[in-house]
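Have a think about this chain, tokens included, and walk me through the fold.
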Amino acid sequence: MTTQELITARDLVDIDIFHGLPRQDLEQIASICAVREYQAGERCAVQGETAHEVRVVRRGKIAIEMRIEVTPFTQTLSITTLTGGNVFAWSALVMPYVLTASARCMERSQILSIEASDLQRVFNERPSVELVVMRNLATVISLRLRDGWSQLVRLVAEMIKQGR
């Protein structure tokens, strides 16, 4: 459910991809944010779907999960847990714009949603904003990749131990 709650620059200060942006840029981004409510257990992003929105946890806990399919095995790995200020569905900003993982609410959660096309408009008007956001996003992607590899290594070790 989308609400009409007003988002301010103050709401964006602690968001990982917006660290280092001045207040005026945060105000511009705040004007294009929407707030969505999700219930526990509900998916708020699905691996493999095309991403049109960048999403950020405002309140609640989100599990980032990756489905691994290697015939005849299928496994869903829990990569990490996100809380307030953490971005997900960042694939909306990175070609080919396909979600690399799913996001499932572990509890009732409030999500900030930003249309990628609106954010791209901000980037076109203010290239300095794009530079900061994309640098921060590179750090987020690096950390998620590390977390994903860690979980994958754990799964492979478990499979070897079980003789699969």
In short: The helical segments are 9-12, 23-30, 116-125, 127-161.
